[in-house]
Backbone:
């Protein structure tokens, strides 16, 4: 009989496990989410966006300077939803990352979003991808932000799409705190997070996102 030698075949050795718990590579799942985390329902999203717009209006009506950062954040949440972005992907966007899509000429200069800081696998650089604009309202709110409101907040020399009132670019902590404040004020499930908002992508939502018309009408004041 031929084949592998037995442990007592005169070699004085025995089989050992080569790969074991101590040297095996850690398995990282594509989705490492707590069971409590889930996506928003459409009703929750509508309520969240409406509440974000209401905070802009209230701050503006009271003469508070915070209306512009609130407007930025309301637009930021809607853009993240539109393109299915994570927090850091959204935060790291620059104005130059927005461009035309030859297959979507109806969106003009806002037909394609170049995501340069996508989630990377361990030890790898950030992933890049292009995400096409799907809804007309997305192009509208982006154009409104870039051309009318962003210049009122951005410091000279910054290319960040979402500039901070205290620096060149909004921080993750700011995004987290604003999101959590709105979610908790509405009494929504604590298991809902930023990516749960962006992960809810319905077939159509032309009436889902409202615009802060009271601010748009007075952007020159």
Residues:
């Amino acid at each position: 009989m031929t084949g592998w030698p037995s442990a007592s075949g005169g070699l004085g050795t025995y089989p050992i496990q080569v790969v074991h718990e101590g040297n095996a590579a850690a398995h990282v799942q594509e989705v490492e989410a707590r069971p409590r985390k889930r996506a928003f329902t459409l009703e929750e999203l509508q309520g969240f966006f409406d509440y974000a717009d209401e905070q802009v209006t209230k701050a503006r009506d009271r003469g508070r300077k915070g209306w512009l950062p609130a407007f930025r954040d309301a637009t930021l949440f809607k853009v993240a939803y539109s393109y299915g972005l994570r927090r850091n992907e959204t935060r790291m966007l620059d104005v130059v990352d927005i461009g035309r899509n030859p297959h979507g000429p109806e969106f003009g200069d806002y037909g394609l979003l170049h995501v340069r800081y996508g989630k990377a696998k361990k030890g790898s650089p950030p992933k890049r991808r292009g995400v096409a604009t799907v809804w007309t309202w997305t192009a509208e709110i982006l154009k409104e932000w870039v051309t009318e409101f962003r210049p009122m907040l951005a410091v000279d020399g910054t290319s960040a799409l979402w500039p901070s009132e205290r620096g060149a670019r909004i921080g993750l902590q700011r995004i987290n705190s604003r999101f959590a404040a709105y979610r908790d004020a509405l009494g929504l499930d604590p298991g809902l997070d930023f990516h749960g908002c962006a992960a809810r992508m319905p077939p159509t939502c032309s009436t889902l996102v409202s615009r802060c018309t009271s601010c748009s009408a007075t952007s020159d004041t």
